[in-house]
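The following block was generated as part of the benchmark described in Methods. Ligand: iron/sulfur cluster.
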Amino acid sequence: MNDMQMIKEIEKIKKEKNIKIFAHNYQNLEVQRVADYLGDSFYLSKLAGEVDCDEIIFCGVRFMAETAKIMCSDKKVVLPVEDAECPMAHMVKPQEVLAFKKEHPEFKVVSYVNTTTELKAVSDVCVTSSIAEIVINNMDAQNILFIPDMNLADYVSKRVKGKNIISWNGYCPVHDKVRKDEIFAMRKEYSGYEVLVHPECRREVLQEADFVGSTSAIINYAKNSAAPGFIIGTETGVLHTLKAENPKKEYELLSPSLICYNMKKTTLRDVYNAVTGKGGLVIELDKELAENAKRSLDEMVRLAC
Ligand code: 13P
Ligand code: SF4
């Protein structure tokens, strides 16, 4: 079966089975094209609890599919590639968080959505990169342990006043590799371009950027800016939407290291196998664990609005 036939079949089966395909902004172009919804972590997590369908095929990494399942336990949720994992989601263990809480009961635990369900279940509130600042600002707590991303924690703690934020030492292996020297070199080559970066990058990189934001915030910023071109400091998958939405502008990837191999594992064939029920991982979560994790996600949605 060629790609065109596969796309046709996917569209047909989607209607028959009342399936919606969710894709994160980092997915391969052919996957983005068959998606019903494309966006950043916050948009997709919130949408999972609101969308009207029987089944969600979540094209992303495992924590994203699990988050969708937590938000809509009555629906079937499938991750097309079983081992599409975000390494950062495992950089802290639930037992470590519980031990910290026991020793420091005055701290609230804020977990980045890039965490396992087990970690969300021992957290007080979840955040995504797009709403971390507003959620933490709206929390009553003064003392916060932010898990696991030290770069996002550092970025947020500079913007939120009057809170004591300490962080775990996790990081995104993709964004953490970027260096400020790469910005200097790119600015020299592409003068007049604006540098847009994700807050998972190091402080030295964020300090040299014109704009810091989530994947969707970067896409939105580029749409509204008058700059002739942009140097993009997040995963290469966002370039598809950037180019499609603003074809007259130019885009350059800040660093060749900005490829998330886990996000790139999902192919059109995997999506086809998932919709036909021949492949992928059907997300199953322990009921009590999922209910505990949902509390921190519900709190995120409440505090973000
Ligand atoms: P967004 O929340 O910006 O979509 O980012 C998710 C992610 O995994 C970034 O590496
Ligand atoms: Fe995880 Fe980084 Fe990939 Fe995002 S880009 S899914 S944080 S490894």
